[in-house]
Amino acid sequence: MIHFFLKIRFSTLVCLLLFTQLSFGQAYRFRNYGAENNLPSEVIYTLIQDNSGYLWAGTTEGLSRFDGFGFYKVQFPDSSVGRYPTFSIKDRKGNLWFGCNDGTLFHSAGRILEKTDLPNASGTGISSILEGSDGRIYVIAQRKPVFRIDPAKPAEAETISFSPDPTIISAAFTDSGEMLFGTQENMLISKIEGDSLIEKGKVEGFDYSSIMSIHRMKTGSGFIIGTDGNGLFRFQPSGNNGILSRFSGFPGLETLPVKSIFEDSQNNIWISTGGTGVVRMQFMINSDSLVAVQYLDKASGLAGDNVLTIFEDSEQNIWMGFNGDGLSILTTDAFEFHIPGESNKPKSIIFQGSLEIIIFLELLQDSIYTIRKRGKQYHLPQCPSGQDALRSTPIILTIMITYGSEQKVLVFI
Question: How many structural domains does the chain have?
């Protein structure tokens, strides 16, 4: 068996489809939820899942919890009217935190919400909640101050003063512990020193567009910045200003009205937009090199094109919360490949999986096989060189393995 891998030669990258923008055009199987499922409102601002598997949805009519069949309203511990969650996270200990439109903060380690008092709060909506490397929770409202909370003592919030008083829309931590604040026109770089935030620098170049989301990528130290109408940017921290750039070769990303950015467990980036549906960005494995962009909208089966938030549950299903169209779930098998025939048949695909999983092929001699991907067919015609390639689907790398008179092709897609 070891000798099987002795002769390996790498073939050329097949096509430049790798670096193109993909829009497959087929409809996907979305499952939609709305008033018929007891969802109190079809405007969804935030989604989070607790350690028991319940999905919590923040709507304009408050919080609801989903048990797999229907939604059940979760009451706030006071009698406030008109309150709704605008942001949520789960910390590393499994506690849920909800920031609301009236500047209030709630937490839950089970099914009961408890309020965390924020001293000298501005009363403006909570725009971000972050967990720092120290395990503490940082709460950022649209106007100063910033709050710091020890999850073990949630009733004792500390105030961090901030000399500038911009309207803060988004926030994130850098690897070095600095805080990035997205405003209505630029991004501030600040450092926490004691009980104060000190501005270290300012990043311009967004053409006065509001910075709706700042996402730190799981691979590397870079960020993706989403703006309202001026699309997406790359950002690499460096000094007091950093390096701002675009995704070269993908002009469609430069005009998106971004609402949020989410990274799933497979390191795909999902962009929710106000009017363009959802954008899915695929990167090279363990790299920040963008290889493909896919657009999902009403033509693809989405309930609507105004999407406010995206979330991946523990079973890797993708949930999308809309501005007026409720919730949709895209199940994990939506992007899987399916093949005809028996899996052990000679000269056929002998492994199947989702994108970014290796698919093993044997060379085809006289036959044409078909891969079905949610209604669209991809044919495998014999190439002039005698090798076989997938056409109309992105191929990152093909490897030819020779063993005696037999040849096999490993296709990375």
Answer: 2
Owning domain of residue 61: 19-333
Rg (CA), the chain: 24
Instruction: Look at the block and give the residue holding tokens 């690897």.
Output: 175
Same domain, 269 and 398: no
> Do 217 and 73 fall within a single domain?
yes
Beta bridge partners of 21: 293
pTM of the model: 0.77
6/25 same-domain check: no
The closest of 287, 392, 383 to 23, measured between CA atoms, is 392
- Phi first, then psi: give them for residue 83, nearest 5 degrees: -85, 140
**Angle (CA) 117 118 124, round 5°:** 120
235-281 pLDDT tens trace: 999 988 899 999 999 999 999 999 999 999 999 999 999 999 999 99
CATH at residue 205: 2.130.10.10
- Tokens representing 41? 């409102």
Last residue of a domain, one of 316, 333, 350: 333
C-alpha to C-alpha distance for 366 and 356, rounded to whole angstroms: 28
Q: Are 42 and 34 in contact (CB under 8 A)?
A: yes
Residue 48 has pLDDT above 70, yes or no: yes
